[in-house]
Write a structure and sequence with these properties.
The chain is of the alpha/beta class and 433 residues long. The chain has 14 helices and 15 strands. Helix 4 links the parallel strand 2 and strand 3.
Amino acid sequence: MLTGYKNVFQRILSLTWRRSYHESISQTLACSPFSSHSKLSALRSSFFSDPSHCTIRSRQLSTHLHLCHCYSFSCSLSHSSRPTGPMDLKEVLKVLEQLAPLSLAESWDNVGLLVEPIKCRPIITILLTNDLTDSVMSEAEAMNCDLIISYHPPLFHPIKCLVSKDWKQRLAIRAITAGIAVFSPHTSWDSVKGGVNDWLVGGVGSGKVSVLSQAFSSAPQSHKLEFTARSQEELNTIMAELKGTNSGVSLQHTAVSSETDGFFISLICPDSGLTPSVQTLLQHATPSQSLSILQVKKRPLPGYGQGRLSVLDEPVTVAAAVQQMKSHLGLNHLRLALGAQQTLESIVSTVAVCAGSGGSVLNGVKADLYITGEMSHHEVLDSVAAGASVILSDHSNSERGFLAVFKKRLAGHLSNSVTVALSRADKDPLEVV
């Protein structure tokens, strides 16, 4: 069995991934059929004209985009569906997921429900905080909090034990003891439309906003298999075998027929069905000789992703941008590095932002002004040399103000029996002295 699968994977790797395609597909991922006999003939001809078409050459490999109808998440829920009675933890988590799907979080992040009480109880009080610290936990215990939503995940790295000598593990123990659930959204809030980064870039003024690092659909990876069959009988046999070897796996296909060229079949299968599907097709002569595999790229989500770039409706000076961000973030002081050849009176027309630590996201972005929480010394030097001025607020100060925005958003979709509060103990650990 292992040898068989090894051979299948070797054959998969030997197939040339070819022909870029830009088909728009429906939400069911049904592929559009080829519209003419001439196109079918051309495609079929491409399969067999080169006997070495299965030889892979690294310079021939390319990424094939599969353009689909884009969709986006809504940052507001229907008020008609607002609960009227007590809510349990699962109901609140469902609302949080609808407001900012966890699938938007970065792959390295640790988001979602991090601490779950042993005994379920109604959610009456929710505490919002940027960081879960000892003082914030004491605040939550004093107010008999039922759920803490901590923007930053208090538990991030895997742990092998749960002991009180580690301050983060101690917080988890205290939460469990007090029956308090802990949830962290982190980068899902950064990526979502209307989230942290949209709030941050809005501090300088209105403008045409775009995403710096595009988010894509969380749908499972899928593949497009294209092959030919000589007759209807052979096609029926192949499809029956494919369905038999992919029990429980959804397969969508289209077939275009020709009196002289047989059938051209386009099949979409999920990643889990790739190996058994290829193994089945390789058992038939015609599909085996014509098989082509295309990876279907996940759908982009317009307006979702990390970082934002704004082309301001009304350009401002660097000095004005600094004052506006002080007001927006509620800070008396910000750190500023002027770009090469720039002054406080230089005009800012484009602003790039990334909440938190934005050096990697902002790197190479063309903008007059960068705004983020923190950057390394050398990242600042690189930005300044490129002509961009830099405003740094310290890490959590670039995020904390969004909690007040989210408080109103969340409260509007929960039962009236649930109170949402902002932590008074939460603050950035750094201050100017």
